[in-house]
Structures
1.
Amino acid sequence: MATAKKPATKETAAKKEAPKKHPEKKETLGAAKKEVKKAAASAKKAASAKNTTAAKKAESAKNTTAKKTTAKTATKKSAAKKNNSSLPKLEFRKDLFKRSVLYNIKTLYRKTMEEATDQQIFQAVSYAIKDQIVDLWLATQEAYEKQDPKTVYYLSMEFLMGRALGNSLINLTAYQEAKEALEELGVDINVVEDQEPDAALGNGGLGRLAACFLDSLATLGYSAYGCGIRYRYGMFKQEIRDGYQVEVPDNWLADGNPFELRRPEYTKEVRFGGYVTSYTDENGRNNYRLEGYQAVKAIPYDLPIVGYGNGIVNTLRIWDAQPVDCFRLDSFDKGDYQKAVEQENLARNIVEVLYPNDNHIAGKELRLKQQYFFVSASVQEAVAKYMRNHDDIHKLYEKVTFQLNDTHPTVTIAELMRILMDEYYLTWDEAWDVTTKTCAYTNHTIMSEALEKWPIDLFSRLLPRIYQIVEEINRRFEAQIRSRYPGNEEKVKKMAILYDGQVKMANLAIHAGYSVNGVARLHTEILKNQELKDFYELYPEKFNNKTNGITQRRFLLHGNPLLADWVTKKIGDAWVTDLPQIAALKDYAKNAKAQEEFMKIKYQNKIRLAKYIKEHNGIDVDPNSIFDVQVKRLHEYKRQLLNILHVMYLYNQLKEHPTMEFYPRTFIFGAKAAAGYRNAKLTIKLINSVADKINNDVFINGKIKVVFIENYCVSNAEIIFAASDVSEQISTASKEASGTGNMKFMLNGALTLGTMDGANVEIVEEVGKNNAFIFGLSSDEVINYENHGGYDPMEIYRNDPDVHMVLNQLINGTYSPDDPERFRHLYNSLLNTESTSKADTYFILKDFKPYVEAQKQVEKAYRNRSKWAQSAILNVASSGKFTSDRTIQQYVDEIWHLDKVVL
Ligand code: NBG
């Protein structure tokens, strides 16, 4: 076992103390919470008995207890203030925690601390922490029951959560104490944290945004559920073999997930296929039902989402699929053996794996099944939960709102209509009124290959009743368009939900949603004026912007403890829950001592990353070099190719002018490519081939190093951001809806080298042009070329010798002596018009020289250490806008209108 241990005597002593059964619960729960519980129970009883006096009495008892608890928090708060902290502090009993860990090791594994493996220690620690979380979770649910706040259901195919242990400890305000407690047990908390597999139920920014949102919702005290799928296999693990990406299944549940809670009591049934029949009920009403369908059981697993220091614990509910009573005898009797087996297979397949595509839709039937599966279960449960405490389904929207994270969960609209009409017998108009006040849609991309469309035959076969409803929505919508634009069939063609044999999910989401938002100001403007122009004209009131954000709790407080401590020492810790306060750091930007301190911290973080790189890649990198980093999904529009072509160009320069001024640079890449994305995977191979050649060329004396970090994921991202000097955000202007990595770099004091795209625009606005490096075509210029032509990459290739040389090196074996043709596709994508696709779709050659220029400015700026430090500090200090707390507050104020809950 790698974990350092203290002598056994201490542990044996501790073990002797080990309690029988989690007694810390009793002690940490505390009398106050128990009283609340009791009072709440009697309030409920009294209310249901309609005994007003008793109810009032119980209610007032409840209030006093609540007050008591608040008072307790208040004292804690003021105690915290004395320590120069404005933050709340939750109680954490080190001694109980230690006992609980030892006890868990004994009961879970029949082992002692010395015998346990690191993984077993991780499990034991996690269960101990979960115990504490569960108490808060219960109290939160109680508060919600009592206060009956409106709840947002954030419906998302993806939640890229990363690890839970460290983050939960941070939000329980117990990280430091847990670290010390583990130290006393002879255990290093970092080793323990490293045992946890990332919960990688997402691809990239869209899934990570959902995770940051959950953190902010809990921290701000809003009632919220994340609703998604419990994929057996999350985002694949990337291995690099011989420079190529190899996808390895991510069996994240292999050792079990200590944080999850199975909730079979909330099982729902989800139905696929079959046919619709109609019948007239006793009231003479015509109703519809599905027959001959295949059913799957949806079983929820709950994961706790701990708010920062406020005792609130929300829920991420992810659904598992199980077959419904498979191999029932009557199936055999009816000769339905085939059907029974099919149902079993359906259940097995549905939650098997996350589709590894980012900004691209695979269009596979199983994907639509996944979508309907988790949407149907989540909507059924949301409606059932509402009806447990309310009696008028017409007012569902007063207490429930569904946020559709991209078009993936758009079937929510038709599923809610179905439930309202077929199960609650609302009329079409009544159901439509409720639905259109309950569903809201976020658009995350303008990339056309990511806009979901389903073939009608597939859709109607898989979801016959849902399709029927969509058909009717479309029929009415077309009529609406025709009456608004008489004779304008062009409009119908562009806006209809059903057109050309396809179901267009975005059109459905916009037509039925009460809000449509983009994720950065520029993106929303492009939606309004280009991509969704017709819809904006029809429904201007629905459109709004919500610039993305990130949680500073994970990406600074947890990921970069050195910088976090430094910031707190300088300006106090209010930034943890109120990031704009970090602006107070601006006062230190010009302070020479502060600059030195900042640069030393950056250096320490670069050493940490250098170690990681040595361990994982076997490459030595110099922490004194500029760490120039591009980590994100691999996609042509993100232009990793532009970055590596520039490296090839620099290398040519160094070869040609060996004595030229050059500041040592480490180019760091991290990126997963969708398994079937040829050019993306080839770009990974190119980066690794360039790395191999340059890193091993003694002639350039280590001035350039290129590193491709294997398996970029949330947990290594935290280490990477902390160590970065330069943040590469070089997408083709107009293509990156927002970007959120850009914000994480900024928060950690890296300077942005980027195009005026997505949230870069707002980042530069906050920090000032002088503290970033901006280059390249504007989004207007790009869109103009796209609409009217006029760009010829061949011309650049012919006239620019540097570009010429670099491109030729793609096909003359410089980086692939064994197969000079290897990179031909990349070369072709830049120069040759292959069949219908345009040459250099992403304007790489057009932006090449401006990028080279901007890179020169980076080097020049870095030479001035004090100036660089000033800019870096200003970046940290200007990151206040980009907290997801701000984003969520805007969703709450302008879209969801939730009520704040206090414990
Ligand atoms: C991605 C965008 C990013 C954006 C995230 C989160 C999709 C479909 N979109 O620019 O590409 O930051 O969403 O909004 O994955």
2.
Amino acid sequence: MTTTPRRLAVFASGGGSNLQAILDYLDALGPAAPADVVLVASNRASAPALDRVRPLGIATEFIAQPADGAALLALLDRHEVNLIALAGYLKFIPAEVTQRWRGAIINIHPALLPRFGGPGMYGSAVHRAVIAAGDRESGATVHFVDDQYDRGAVIARVRVPVACGESAEQLAERVLAAEHALYPRALHAVAAGWISLDGDGQAVITDRSALNTQIPASAFPIEFLPAVFGRSSSQ
Ligand code: GRF
């Protein structure tokens, strides 16, 4: 790929294992990487995600007032960011940011959206709810971020079967492993421009051939635009 890599900011509130998966994936792609992580930002000054990248010389920022959209926009401008990945970021992104950054903010959620999403649905609460509902299948979903929690257009997902009698912690661990395969690949598709958000708020595949041939294989079957795939017999 010869286009300029996107300048990616990752927002994380916690441990940052998805951040690490993104860093490792982009690193492995070398000069073909569609993005560089230029900033890691957190609403928690002590977030381990920030500690992960300090030795790498990647800029870090503490977001003191996550609801202050103007401050967030200024921060993104300062670092000349042009793509944002939320990776376990627990604060709402203000509407003025999601509107200005339409189609350029993505998030990962540890369930098959639209099930088990929305306010309060994070961390182990998600996996407890899946088990309590008796679902036989969970998974992870990457979606564009709009002005509602976990409601933006779905980019890609991985399904993870729920094992009989397993605990929320066990399910969380297996879903997290799937996330580490899913998130970097979904990010790749968006950063390279092979999937984008259209004017109607739908995710669309703009280069199916690149998507099929240039994203490294994964041990987890990744479904891009699952609703489209569900309708199509050719996939
Ligand atoms: C992940 O389960 C992600 O889906 C959710 O928050 C968790 C973050 O984990 N949004 P980590 O900080 O990447 O380890």
